[in-house]
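[audit] Reproducing an earlier prediction to check determinism. Same input, same settings, fresh worker. If the tokens differ from the archived copy the diff job will pick it up downstream; this log only records the rerun itself.
[audit] input (164 residues):
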Amino acid sequence: MKSMFVTVSTTSFDELIAAARSPPALQALQSRGYQKLVLQAGWGSLPQPQPSSSPAAAVEAFRFKDSLAEELQSADLVISHTGAGSCLETLENGKPLIVVINDKLMNHQLELAKQLHRDGCVLYCNCSTLVETMQSMNLSAFKPFPPGQPEKFASFLNKVLGLQ
């Protein structure tokens, strides 16, 4: 069953949850072959179940879990707030990612989203353009996220601290 996972991590971003489960978004998902939508609402409002006439085959929602690893591993597409940790964890799992900028916050989100997009790793949008992004996305165009190299940082740190 092809699934999409929407996460806001430990934040509150009700606009993203609402946009992802709107009838046009659910229709876009269905038209792309997705049969399951999993929503992680964080500190925001937990969505109420929709009537069975919903075009999505299955919609699940929760606030928090000890780990999101299982959801990330089973997702075919991830839509996330533009938190650095959420973006990196998703990309390290090799999952296609759409990052959604919270226009109500003035922070690093747009810069991060633009850089990851320039690198070919993500698509980005805001809540008002999410459906359009889902309809036009080409998941085969994503480039793999390069793996981290913590040993280089450790070596640099050891040099700076005089431990090497």
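[audit] rerun output stored. Observation attached for the diff report: The longest helix spans residues 150-160.
[audit] end
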